[in-house]
């Protein structure tokens, strides 16, 4: 059993944005082609603390190097006020030869970067500007920090970043820290989410909202909204937009905005395409430059497994991680 800790994961992923974008894109194509197995996530909730949850995401990725395993990720929103990260995660990879566990991988960075790469790929497919100048980030946590990293890699024309968070100090700290990593970008703080929505045609929502609280009336025609946190937008906002998802069966669950829209309408006709269809060129989807497009990724466990396998391979080559002998009988 190889134990791969946070420091080693971060090391092997450093500067690998293009490789991660390519891997996530390839995995979406595999999923679209039916070469993955992605059961519904399992949600462990707690009667005495309903905001907290731990999610299990089992998955299998086919392709040239098949991989299987499970991500176990905890989301405790109260951690933020205590100065801790909201989410923590570990991934168990299994051998495709005998099924035995082969690695335990610290997964907070993997989870954040596969999410951000997914959003960046959608942005490339959906933006209506030939060379987008800016992006607005609503929610100043680690997910939008990674979204910025990958959007900048995928859309190098980005020059301005507008940020908003309910905690103004957190937004200011986010801008200062992100500015150190992106000295070529200009950061602007706004006083409201509506100001952020109207600032640029590319917007990323990554909040801890548990219920819809936002419409898209402030967005410019043709805006693209990366709805990473899944529960920000009202049903009317979803129904008024062009909607792209990672997987309709997964995203229409657990009271996401799209799940509520499905309940309100009795169907999923408001979903226009999947990201896998767009990347594979198999969709009849046409981007309407006058409408807002919303990308809502539930977060498929197969992305975590594929990226964890990539990290595992790198650690094996470079002899990173801690090998535990005698773990198995």
UniProtKB/TrEMBL annotation:
Protein name (database record): 2,3-diaminopropionate biosynthesis protein SbnB
Matches recorded under InterPro entries: NAD(P)-bd_dom_sf, ODC_Mu_crystall, ODC_N, SbnB
NCBIfam families: dehyd_SbnB_fam
Matching Pfam families: OCD_Mu_crystall (PF02423)
Alphabetized GO MF terms: oxidoreductase activity, acting on the CH-NH2 group of donors, NAD or NADP as acceptor
Any one annotated GO CC term: cytoplasm
Any single GO BP term: siderophore biosynthetic process
